[in-house]
Amino acid sequence: MIRHYLKIYIFISVLLSDFLMFADDDPGTGFEDESGDTSGSVDDGVPINGRLIFLAIAGILFAFYQLNKKRSSAQG
């Protein structure tokens, strides 16, 4: 049981430290190129907002799939 909690603790601490390691002190506007110039066109990115609903649906379907798989293996 203690091993289980230790694994969860290590996973959470590594996950949270990852956010801290890659945090940007000066994020700017997000529309700069590599040199920091904002005058050029930076239209090579696509906003993710329009696709989040598909990601959420895929996650819910995957969760149902995993639950059904676990229930069927426990019964048979």
Compact description:
The chain is mainly alpha-helical. It is built from two helices and no strands.
SSE blueprint:
Layout: H1 2-21, H2 52-75
- Average pLDDT for all residues: 76
**Please, what is the oligomeric state?**
single chain
DSSP E strands, number: 0
Radius of gyration over all CA atoms, rounded: 21 Å
Silhouette: flat
The biggest sheet amounts to: none
Counted by DSSP, the helix tally is: 2
Backbone structural class: mainly alpha
List the helices and strands in order. Answer: HH
Task: Kindly report how far apart the N and C termini lie.
Answer: 27 Å
What would you note in describing this structure?
The longest helix has 24 residues, at 52-75. This protein is flat. Helices cover 58% and strands 0% of the residues. The chain is an all-alpha fold and 76 residues long. The protein contains two helices and no strands. The protein has helices spanning 2-21, 52-75.
List keywords for this structure.
mainly alpha, 76 residues, flat
